[in-house]
Amino acid sequence: MFNNTKIAKAVRLAVVFGVSSVTTMAANAQDVQANEDEEVIQVTGSRIARSELSQPTPVVTLEARDIQKFGTPDLGSILSELPAIGAGDSLIGNNGDNDVAGTSSADLRSLGASRTLVLVNGKRHVAGNPGEATVDLSTIPAGLIERVEVITGGASAIYGSDAVSGVINVILKKDYDGFDFNVTGAKSTEGVNSRNHTISILAGTDLEDGNVTFFASYDRIGEVLATDIRQYDNWGTVINPLNTGEDDGIADRLRVTNVMSELIHANGVINPFGGAAGLWVFDDAGNPLRQVERENTSSFAFGNFPDGCDYCFSPENYENYSPEVEKVNLSSTLTYDITDNITFNGDVKFVRSDIKQQFQPSFRFGNISINVEDNAFLDPTLRQTLLDAGQNTVSMAKFFDELGNRSADNRRELFRYTAGFNGAFTLSETDFDWELYYVYGKTTNTRNTLNDLIPSNFASAVDSVIDPATGEAVCRSQLASAQGEGYEDPAKINPAECVAFNPFGQSSSQAARDFVSADVTRKDEITQEFIGGTLVFDSSEFFELPGGPVGIATGFEYREETSGSTTDELTKGGFLTSAATPDSYGEYDVSEFFIEVSLPLLSGVAFAHELTLDGAFRSADYSHAGTAEAWKVGLMYAPFEDLRIRGTLGEAVRAPNITEAFDPLSPGFANVNDPCDVDNITDDADRIANCAALGIPSGFEANDNVSVDLLSGGNANLESEESESLTIGAVWTPSYIEDFSLTLDYYDIEITDAITFVSAQNVVDNCVDATGGLDQGFCSQVDRDPVTNDISLVRSGYLNAAALNTKGIEAQARYVTGLGAVNLPGEVTMNLLVNKLLELEEFEFQDRPDEINVEDGEVGDPEWQVRFGADYQLDDLTVSWSSRMIDRSFTLDISPTGDTPEDTSPAFVGTIITHDLGFSYQVSDTIAVNAGIRNLTDKLAPGYITNALYDLVGRRAYAGINISL
């Protein structure tokens, strides 16, 4: 409809290579002369269509042809390379948690993915993870995307809850007439096992009064293990032997390679906590070996082995850098003009994802007890050595490699459909645009964690003896003559089927492995259902302001959300290594109404080429969190045609999600350092008096070597978070420089009453760190043993207790020019995008502003990020280059009460600059090809950096072919 408008031309000119094409829409819109035929268009950030794309809130966009240059089908990973979006919830960032394995989300402004609202074609989308509202972006196929629009800053007044840090609106292709076949692929050029490929078909046809479109795709992203990453080499920190104390100018700790643990290994380690016979390990066959000694110490469990260690534990041997994802996507859209003024729109999609992700095997660290005299598998020579040293019983540590990794083997399925009607009508002399819609979405996850240990069964199976009647190893529980008085079989699952387990080396039988292990199965079902409607009109029939008629948009929405998880009986019963996990379920509904107005105060007068005031208000009534209100005021002022000054001020909200509000009270375990311990009591000025008030004697030494019981769950009394956001900026489009624009925007977001899970450590600390006496609210959540005074139980959960602040400046310069002036053919498009992070602060407790966690300048949140891109286009050929800079960042806590650069060396990762090179070529009317190299110079962050913001894979190539008929 808008193919030939000046606005559409301005948008098309914005397309440059890679993320460098991320374009501030307001900066690229050219003024459209006011007349009756003036066309309008709607973009994210407003429900009122405008004759200019300029609006008070900056909106940036990523076009379809830019997306193909990232060499990945995962939208979340693509967006995580934008300066405004953190990488912690991307496909790689989620690699340590089975709950979110294989999912990919967006985290605007690094304020948490739960505070970023994701829309598809302007409508909410069902969540991907149980208990949350976070959308799994990997369920939106990159090949179906027309563009992605990103509005940063609070937008709850326009779109509702969760838009605290902004909105990502994914616009999909529709009304397609033709046939497209695409094949794309990417692979590391440096031997890293990083690869992916996509095959997709897009077909559509125009009907007499509408259009039907069908899309199908198959994606596969290969698994990359930590051991595949070239610069990884068991990096860690060790105590610097040259250090003489604090502030001596000598680093306290050093980053070195080969930091491993000699106290635990897959083949078993005897005496990990010390013993008269010394430290022993075993080879694969179960032969005992004296364990090697560390050179420098990292912690009790880890040390440095410069020459390597054949039988030491290394976390890298078991972990993913990125999981394997296999995905099928089927979708279809239908539009049909019922009448000249009423159109039906519907779409349906189904996504199935199979994910495989690795985690460490089950382990026991020192809590394996070996009966030296009786054990059927212990080497005889070592048996005698231990007995000679007076050790009749020894402890053992072991990773259970023979059981296999506790890998995630998950299947996620998503079904979603939308149906709606939109049209226009005239009442009196006022034209109304309207829309009514219904959306239903359902996500089902089957999350399997394979090869977990059944500790009680293992305790029975590892207590082996020789049956004198057969000479074979059996469980003590199966041989009455070996049990002794008062013996009780520790096995809780099928105890009569016990098979003796050989823990030394890798020699246990399959039957024994089956007896001591089981899989964890969790099933999730998430649903979202809502109806809504909008009505848009203006005041031209009744009155007009000096700048034109007032634009008005209003509407309503009713939404229901549910989420439930069921767990297998073994896990619910607490029979596995994880704490007992009950089934969970929660639901809520919300009724909302909103109104938005655009007031064109002045237009086309001296010193006021444009002066427009916008406002929006939304009220929501939540069944579980009460009423929440959000508002926004925006101003666009153009003193003359070349310059626009824009700003917004608003309040946004986020209602508690289902996990935060309804998670059942569940038992667990926590490691807690007792603040009343003699080593910790002086860390806060209030502790001595408050610990004494608890009746804890001076010089108290707590038993901190064991976990304490934890009870945690949701909080039905939570209220909605609130945030205030401010953006102020300018757009300069000088008329004397054709196709040049410059934008500069300042943003400031402050979140109060932020929902946070209070850790067990913070509960016990806050009890005694309060000024003026004990904090009874927290102290009532801590149980202590009446005899020993040790902490025995901590209760925890979610509270509206935290606060977050962020500030920054974003700038973009863009220029499109032909090369005729220098007697060369073709056209060049250049784009420079700069982000300066001024502040990113977290307050776990907003009423304690002195306890601040400063994030800006730390790894993952650099102070500066810069992107530059250039496209050279000559007829059907486009050659592209882009560059990305991530500023030097600290690897330590730079908060006022945090670390100092002397604490660890090196204390930072240096500036990282990467370059991408690519091309696309229209071979014929029906065939187009593209290819490129990402990270052309193979620039890598050092091996001690694991943050997903950085490219740790290095140079890789991508290519694709498109056939259009």
Automatic annotation (TrEMBL):
Subcellular location: Cell outer membrane
Record domain TonB-dependent receptor-like beta-barrel: where: 409-936
TonB-dependent receptor plug domain ranges (all copies): 54-167
Spans traversing the lipid bilayer: none
Membrane topology: Multi-pass membrane protein
GO CC terms in record: cell outer membrane
Leader sequence residues: 1-29
Top-rank taxon, per record: Bacteria
Family assignment from sequence similarity: Belongs to the TonB-dependent receptor family.
Protein name (database record): TonB-dependent receptor
Taxonomy of the source species: Bacteria, Pseudomonadati, Pseudomonadota, Gammaproteobacteria, Alteromonadales
